[in-house]
Structure formats: structure tokens, C-alpha cells
Amino acid sequence: MTRGLIDTNGLDREDIAALRAVTPPENLPFTIGKISHVVMKVADIERSVAFYTQLLGFRVSDAYPESMMPHRMVFLRYDSDHHGIALIGGAGGPSTGAELHHVAYEVGTLDEVFLARAHLENYGVEIIFEGRRRAGQQIAIEFKDPDDHMVEICWCMDQIAPHEISRPPEDWRAAASLEDAVNDPPPGQDITLVDPSLLRR
Q1: 2, 58, 95, 184: most buried, per Cβ within 10 A?
Q2: Distance in angstroms (rounded) separating the CA atoms of residues 62 and 41
Q3: Domains plus CATH for the chain?
């Protein structure tokens, strides 16, 4: 298979046309705004950090020791988001295509994270995590797709200007539910819901 090949016959096949014709339902209660960040396993974390910073211009926002993430973790940014990618050490060698940790998608409002949780649960999708983790301080839900890839829907990742430093760990507010995230915001995070009835009591 040639990567540059344009297979016009293949593109016109019935199965490919059927895939192109798939559309979301009109009544979804949220809208994905962008891919928020990607987290990858790497074999040599120093080598990978050097590659992304020195060759691609990423900036390091935060790093975790082994006590916080096995094999250490480094968060890197390319714009004002706290991280666009994160690297976790411990990969056994070169990529086999299985090193992706999770993909995160950002929504535009906090209400949409709550609506996404209810929507997914309504369809029998198990929420693996909800709330707020540490670095980045985004409020999120995490779940698996049918192939067991971890997926995140999040809102309000910390924003960092090019030469600013990230939020210090003492200002992090981890939370184990969306409701806990709303009740204990980090400094400067506006967690006002347009529809407070979305909160579970």
C-alpha cells in the first residue's frame, strides 16, 4: 500500500461511503471542541523530553517523580494550555503502536462535562474517573472506548503564557467526583454551573 495513493475506486466503495455518512444525533447535550492532550509511554524519558523541547519547541510545565507516577511523568505544552502532550516513562522499547495512554477532548463549558457524564452513563458506558486530577487542574470524566482505549472529556485546563510557570502543586485541588471538583476549586478556577441542577446530591 502506497501512502500517497488516492484510491478513487476504494473511496467510492459502499462500506466507505457508509462510514462517511455516519453523523451524530441532533440532540447530543455537549459538543467536543478540540483534542485537549495526548499522553504517551516512552522508553527513555530524558531522551523524549530533549526531543520535544529541543527539536520541536515544547516547554515543560510539570514533572512527576516515581512516587506520583511509576517511571515518572513530564507534562509539555506548545501553547497556553498546561499540557498538549505528556510523557510517561517505562515503555519496554520502541513503539509497537500500543503506547498511547489516553486521548482527551475538551468541551466549552463545565455544564457539558456533567451532561457528557449523564449521557454516557445513559448508554451504559462506565465512567472510570470523574473529578479533577493534579497538574493541569482540568475537570474531567474518563472512560473506555469499545477497544479499551482510555478517553477523557475535560474542561478548563490551566492556561500558561510562554514564559510563565505553571500552577504550584500547593494550589492543586484533586477531586474524586465532579461534585467535589465544583465544591473545592483551585485558586482562579470559576466553577459556576449555568444549570446547578446537574449536581448530584
Answers
A1: 58
A2: 16
A3: 32-198 (3.10.180.10)
